[in-house]
Write a structure and sequence with these properties.
CATH topology of one domain: Transcription Regulator spoIIAA
Low-confidence stretches: 6-18
Strand content: over 45%
CATH class of one domain: Alpha Beta
Mean pLDDT: 78
Number of strands: 5
Helix content: 10-25%
Amino acid sequence: LIQRKQQHEGSANHKRTVSSQQWDSHLRMQLPLLGTVEVALTLVDKQLSLRITAPDGHDSLNAHLPALQDRLSALGFNLHTLSLQDTPLSPPDSDAS
């Protein structure tokens, strides 16, 4: 799921309106060594917020967070927040019979 939002800041008293775009994305992946990994991403200008959950791969991902932060910084992103959790962001599919 990827969503784009445009926000306008300011009030009627301001002559100039500043606008910025916000991108939201939510990914759910099933990976062989990490199990289910979910990522909620928000990007406003170059400010990036990541919320990662990986119940089975939490320890492995946690060990590699500094490398992820370095890579994102090298790409020009300002990491606003980065959190790693072991509780799923969304409930598992209930399609099983």
